[in-house]
Amino acid sequence: MPIYKTITVSPTTSAYLWKVTEPEDELSEGIVLTPHCQNRMDGMKSEAHRKAFLSIRHLLALSGYTDSDLFYDEMGKPHLKDGNHISITHSHNFTGIIVSETDEVGIDIEMQRDKILRIAHKFTPIQEYRTLANTDAIIRKLTMVWGAKESLYKIYAQKGLSFLRHIDVMDFTFEDKRTVAEILYEGNKSHYDVEFLEFEGFTCAYALKLMGS
User: Alpha-carbon torsion 91, 93, 98, 99, what sign?
Assistant: First the structure.
């Protein structure tokens, strides 16, 4: 079972990453899906999507849960029946979850690729990145900022929330591997800690909402 990495974020919060390398039948072993989720998987035409779906159920098991412990609200945000917080992500052959007993959490995995240069203006003031050494550095930084904003969006889960107008990620260096961020939306302000992990041409960002914000 290729659990790729386990991250102890805090005593009450852990993240788990999976690298999908197994055939689908192997990933199916030991996984019991609810009728709803079985129907969802049966409707997936892409084998890669089905394998990602199954690998996330293995990550749930590692964190002490089964498929039946998971449900989604009308915004598509995942929840756990015991009241703990969860966020889920997948990108190509990597999947991940973050689970917390105490904090609202979000996680996102993104492949580092030059496509992000074309969409950067939609989520961040691109001129802020022109001081970076080269295009590869700009791609890395933009991917981190995008992942951070995706993580925050997953926590907030409100229609109309704009990556560009409402989510602000404070500047950071590559060496920091962390930053802080805030959401200002409809007069309400909330604050978040964000951490980053880079591996095999991918970036993982995970965020925790700060207490009282």
Answer: positive
